[in-house]
Design brief:
Structural class: mainly beta
Distance between the termini: 39 Å
Number of strands: 11
Length: 123
């Protein structure tokens, strides 16, 4: 398994921006598809965005499409989530996840998870 550590969360006003980072351990990061999920209080964890191992393809949840951008730097073993136009409903703990086989956007498709970083958007 790969070890993942998220950072960059915080408190921001509605309409603001944040960039989350997820640093991965190991020498095979460039072979993993990566994803971001989020979980709001009292709700199930949900898919936000994913990116293929090369960075050539991405996928987004409809709720964040056009506002969030996932990217990666394989030389730094890091995946990013740029979040613009934040809304109070984006408030959640954001988790980074790695997918070592196949491609998918469902929770079971990912086999390594970070500890999460809190994002709070005030109105």
């Amino acid at each position: 398994q790969v070890q993942l550590v998220e950072s960059g969360g915080g408190l921001v006003q509605a309409g603001g921006s944040l960039r989350l980072s997820c640093a991965a351990s190991g020498r095979t990061f460039s072979s993993y598809d990566m994803g971001w999920f989020r979980q709001a209080p009292g709700k199930e964890r949900e898919f936000v965005a994913a990116i293929t191992s090369s960075g050539g393809s991405t996928s987004y949840a409809d709720s964040v499409k056009g506002r969030f951008t996932i990217s990666r730097d394989n030389t730094k073993n890091t995946v990013y989530l740029q979040m613009n136009g934040l809304k109070p409903e984006d408030t959640a703990v954001y988790y980074c996840a790695a997918q070592t086989t196949g491609w998918g956007t469902a929770l079971p498709d990912f086999d390594s998870w970070g500890q999460g970083t809190q994002v709070t958007v005030s109105s």
